[in-house]
Amino acid sequence: MTLSPVVLVGRTARALLVSSLALVAIACNTPQTGQVPFDAKNKPVDVDLAGQSYSATEMLLQNTQQTLDMGRPILVASLVNVANLERSSNLGRVVSEQVGSRLSQLGYDTRETKLRGSFLIKEGAGEFALSREIKAISAKQNAQAVIAGVYAVARSKVMVTLRLIRAKDGKILSSVDYTLPMGPDTAALLGPYDIVQYRQ
Questions:
Q1: Nearest to 126 by CA among 65, 172, 89
Q2: Alpha-carbon dihedral sign for residues 101, 177, 133, 65
Q3: Are 142 and 73 in contact (CB under 8 A)?
Q4: Is there a contact between 161 and 149 (Cβ–Cβ < 8 Å)?
């Protein structure tokens, strides 16, 4: 039996539609690879900042090299710009607040510290240690660890590093790295110093 041109066109259209839907389904189920998502105008799209902070906190706890005592405090400090450890921003403060919130939700004794870069000592090669000041504060509060972090501003994203550091000797117990797309909300949370870097 010879099919009419109309039938052939109809079957071809249906086949193309099925193929397109299959490709969409595959794309939707593909895990994220860390690439920055863009919108239709080729601009970075914001992600769930709290969700990212919560996941990073959970990874720090899961990967720690020692068992943490739920009854001893963990100090959480504002994230600072890796190019200048004395500078933080609304982004650095918000992320630290979210990290502290997740710790509290998981049952840990969390203490916020207003100290920023003043307690981090750059040792070179990207390594940081705790200052005598934060060690003294940790001893006074009987804190077992400090969560500190840095961020670096790139053109389309902000790269974040969080570290769980043992208070008594500064040993890094665990570390996690992740990126935040430079969407409008993320850009609005950055400080003037960060924006200057971003535009260069």
A1: 172
A2: positive
A3: yes
A4: yes
The CATH number given to whatever domain includes residue 187 is 3.40.50.10610
Summarised one tens digit per residue, pLDDT across range 42-100 is 678 899 999 999 999 999 999 998 899 999 999 998 898 888 877 888 999 999 999 99
> For residue 179, what are the CA distances in angstroms to 46, 151, 156, 157?
11, 9, 10, 6
Domain that holds residue 12: 1-30
In a domain? residue 20 = yes
Q: Both 24 and 102 in a single domain?
A: no
Q: In whole numbers, what is the pLDDT of the chain averaged over residues?
A: 76
The predicted model scores a pTM of 0.72
Task: Single out the residue of 100, 90, 98, 78 nearest to residue 148, CA to CA.
Answer: 78
The Cα 118–Cα 134 span in angstroms is 9
User: Could you tell me if 88 and 159 are in contact, meaning their C-beta atoms sit under 8 angstroms apart?
Assistant: no
- DSSP labels for 68-95? PPTTS-EEEE--EETTBTT---HHHHHH
pLDDT band for position 12 (50/70/90)?
very low
The single residue listed with the structure tokens 């003043």 is: 118
Q: What domain count does the chain have?
A: 2
